[in-house]
TrEMBL record:
One Pfam family linked to the record: Methyltrn_RNA_3
Gene3D superfamilies tied to this protein: 3.40.1280.10
One example GO MF annotation: methyltransferase activity
Protein name, UniProt field: Putative methyltransferase C9orf114
Annotated region (Disordered), positions in chain: 1-34, 98-126
Compositionally skewed regions (Basic residues) per UniProt: 102-112
SUPFAM superfamilies: alpha/beta knot
Amino acid sequence: MGRSETNAMKRKRKSEVKPISNGTPDVTAKSPAVVDTSKPTAIFQPSKGRDWTVSVALPGSIISNCQTHELRTSMAGHVARALAVFCVDEVIVFSDGNSKNPAKRHHNRTHSYAHQTDPSQNEYTGDKDPDHFLFHLLNYLETPAHLRRLLFPMHPNLRTAGTLPSIDLPHHLRPDEWCPYREGVTLAGADENGTFVEAGLRIPVTVEQQIPEKNRVTLKFEPGAEEASKDATAEVIRAEAVNPADPREESGYYWGYNVRKAGCLSDVFTECTYDGGYDITIGTSERGIDVEELYSGDEEQKVGNFKHLLIVFGGVAGLEVAVKNDGELQKLGVVEAKDVFDRWVNVCPGQGSRTIRTEEAIWIGLMGLRRLVVNNE
């Protein structure tokens, strides 16, 4: 562009500035609104209740691939962040028989006992039982910060968990934030008048039910509770203990993920806590079909609406080793891993690296399968 053209453009821009009454240019007439970028604006907003769920299963053996405690903790943090960002409702940690200690231990998260761990696991398990270590860390990170000291005693597994970035779930509420639901922990002293629950507000919440102490509960506040929480003279904030699925099913909130532990791959399916089990199951592998075929391929590969979607990721040796080491699947004569699932998918075709680590595959896979979730809404 020549000098004459540049000068012409400058003159044009000056001529477009509208003068005000005193003859000076109005440089503020169309100033855009200032956005405070120091605070997050992508806050989850529920639209309507939903009864469908998204579950992810992965082997605890991925922890065995980490050489230090810090790397194991970081690995769990990466997994938890992915689950939170993509609104996963359930995560299952299963044994693929490829870890150093593939002992079976079953832990199911329930309404009130989500925080409790195996009493025999009071020592560090990152190098001995990676399944338990990942299960423990994922449970800890999902719990609101103000409840962790009440639910999780000091443990070697958690010694550096405080250095991980927060996953900042919708139920990780600040004291000055209000939501019709909230997570809490029951306190001692339940009687015929009810139970006090620590929920991170200025005073404990009162529920009519009598619940043993140190149990995690989901609260639904009664009318007037918000006003009482802000009124320094109010002595009672009332709520009721409800099912942990109520915030999602009734109001559409994403309310964190449940954590479940399975002794082998087949237990992921047989111990499913949803009525009717998973209606769509997807196994991930570099030997699967292109993920795009789920959307634009033939009708046989396309995925329609679902009630309970399960996405399974393999460890270092893939899902094939999990099938090979699963006694129940071997009894059924299963030879190929792809036969276990409704779809066998490659979430990153044409990858440049020879390998994709499981913690990377979770991010890539959940993004590639995001359209299934969006189309299901």
